[in-house]
Amino acid sequence: MRTALLIAASALALTGCASVFEPRDEIVVTTKHTRPPHLPTDLSPEGVAAADDHLALEQVDGAEAMAFVRASNEKALAVLTGDPRYETFRAEAEAILTATDRIPAPSFLGDGIGNFWQDATNPKGVWRRTTLDSYASADTRWETLLDVDALARSEGKDWVFKGASCLAPDETRCLISLSDGGKDAVVVREFDLTTKAFVADGFSLPEGKHRLSWLDADTLLVATDFGPGTLTESGYPFIVKSLKRGQALAQATEVYRGAQGDGGYGVSASVFRDAEGQVEAVVFNRPLDTFRSESFLLSDQGPQRLALPQRVSIFGAQGGRLIFSNDEAWSLNGDAIPQGSLLSVPFMDLRAPMEDAPSPPALIFSPGPRQSLQDVAVLDDHLILAISDNVAGRLIHASSTPERAAANPHWVLRDIDGPDASALALGDSSKASGRVFVSSQGFLTPPTLSLLEPTRRELSALRSAPPKFDASTHVVQQFEATSSDGTKIPYFVVMPRGLRMDGSAPTILFGYGGFQVSFPPAYKPEMGKLWLENGGVFVQANIRGGGEFGPGWHQAVLKENRQLAFDDFAAVAQDLIDRGITSPRRLGIYGRSNGGVLTSVSITQRPDLFNAAVIESPLIDMLRYHLLPAGASWIGEYGDPRITEEAEYIARYSAYQRLRPDADYPRVYITTNTRDDRVHPGHSRKFAARLAAQGHDHLYFEDTAGGHSNDADPVANARRWARHYVYLAQQLMD
Length: 734
What we know:
about 30% strand; 5-stranded antiparallel beta sheet; 8-stranded mixed beta sheet; 39 strands
C-alpha cells in the first residue's frame, strides 16, 4: 500500500550581502580511507548503543537534550535571523502563506463543499462550508463550522486541525481530529454540523494514533491503544474493535486482530459505500511490514482473507468488485499481470482460492515503460485514473460495459483533455454526483482547480491562483543523468533564461527517493519568490525510491539496494556540474524526512559535490532508527538493524556513524521539531552534536511546536522558510 513520511519543497534568497563566513573557492575532498571513529565494530543493538556518546539527546524533553536545543537555537538564530535578508524573506513567505487569494482546497461535504482555511487572522484555521455554486462564483459566501483558533484559546490547548471524517450520505455527523502541537497523535470528538457544536456525550477518543471509520450512525470501527499489549513495536494498533455509541473503549467488541509483531502503520478498517451511502464492503488491512499486507473482508462468518498480492494498493469498491493495483508482479490462472496494473475483481472471486476463481480479473490499465498509476477515483459507474507519463500528468476516464457487475466486464478508456507537461492530481470525489476535483500546475504555472463532470471529456476550470513570483525570467527543462549502474535518472531544472553555463549559478537540488512518493513539476511559490526571482536555479531529481515510474522504480532501492538512490542523487549533481549549470561551490541540497536520509548521506559520502545542505526533520541514525518511535514501521523500506546482514549494509551509509573529523564537510543546516512524533528529533540532535564534537561548523535549530508536517501555523511556517533561505543564500549566493 502506498505510504509516505512526508515531503516539502525549497526556496530562497537575495544577492549582494556580506557573507557570514569565508567561502571556499573550491571544495576539496579530504576524507581518508580510515574507519570512521564512531562506526561500531559490533553492530548488534547493544554494540551500537555502546558506541553512541549522545544517547541522552534521544530523551525528547530530557534536561540535557533541552539544554543542547537552547544553546544550539541561540547560535542558529543569531546567524540566521540576524542576517539582514531574514526579515524580507519572512515577510515575503508570510504574505504567500497567508494570502487570501489562494485557492481554498475543496472537499465534498453533504450537498455542499467543505474547506479548512488558514490565514494571518486565523493561523490555526477555520473549518467552513459553502455550496458548489457559491464556491465557483467570484463572491463565495462561507459558513464557519469550527473556529480552531477560538477553540484553542477557550481550552488552553495548542490545537492543530488534523481533518474530519463525516458519515455518508448526509454527512452531518463528523469525527474531528485535533492534535496538541501538531503531533500525529490526535484526540477525536464527534461534531454536529447542524448545531455546529461538539456532541455532548458523543464519540470521544483520547490522544492516540487512531485508525477509525464510521460503520453506521451509532457504530465506529476503531483501531487504537486499548491498553497494555495492544500496540506494535512501532506504536501502532493491531486490533480493530466495534465501538457503539455510549460505550467506553474498554467495552468495545473485537472484530479483527493482527499480531503484535506486525510492521507498517497499524491495522485499519476501510468501509466502502455506494452512491447512496450504503455499505458495499468492509475490508481490514493488516500490514506485515511497510509495504506488504494482508486484506480481509468482513462477512457474516467474520473476517475472510482475500487472495490479493501482498504488495497492493486498494482504491475502492464498485458494484461488488474491488478496484486495486498489484504493486508486485502477479500471476493469476496462468496469466501474468504486469506490476502496477489496475484491476477490477469481484469480491466473491477474491474470497475463493484464486486458482479456483470462476472468472479472471478485469484488467483496466497496464502502464508503459515510462508510466505509472498515481491515483484512482472510484465513482459509482466509472473511474478516473491519474497517470504519470515521463513525470508529466495525464488523466484517463475508464467506464465499463453496462454489464459491469458481470464476471468480466469490458472497460473502455479515453483520455481527458488537460494541460501538457504539468502536475495533475485528483482531489476529493463524490460517488453521489460522479464528480472529481482536479488540480493542475507546473513549476512556473500557478495551480488551477477544475471540476470533472461524469459525462465530460475535458476539465471545467473553477479557480486559478494568481502568480506569486515573476515566472518570465525562468524556463524549465528536463534532463537525464546516468547513475552508477547505467540507469537513466530524470530531473527538472528551473533556470534563468539565457543562463551562462559557466558553473556560477547558485542552485538548490531537491530529492526524496523513497516510499513510492512521486514528485511531479509542482508550483512552489516560496521558492519562486525567494530564490528564482533572485537569479537562482532549482532542480528536482526524480531518483529511484519514488513512484514516478511505478512500483519497480521504488523497489529497486529497497533495503540492501539503498545505495543506488544515493548514487542517483550524486549522478544528478555531477551532471549539473558537467553541463556547466552550477559548480560544487554554488550547489546546495535540500531534503526532509526520508529526504533527510538522502541529504545526510550525500554530505558524508560526497562532500566534494556540495557547499550547502538543509537537512530537515531527518532520519540520520539508521542503526537505531527502529528504536525511535515510529521507526520500526519503516523496516520494509530500509531493513532491520537487528539482523546482522541487514545492519551491515545499513552501516555502510548511515550518516551518523560515518562522520569523520578529517573530512571537509560544508557548513550544514539541520532542523527539526520537538513535537515531531513521526521522525524522532533525536536523529537531528545527535548528528549536530557529533558534528560539533568533531569540529565541523554547522547550524542546528529545533522548533518547539508544529510536528512533522510543519503546517500547523502559516506564520510560523514563514519563519521556517526564511531561516532555510537565509542559510542557502549565505552558502550559495554570498
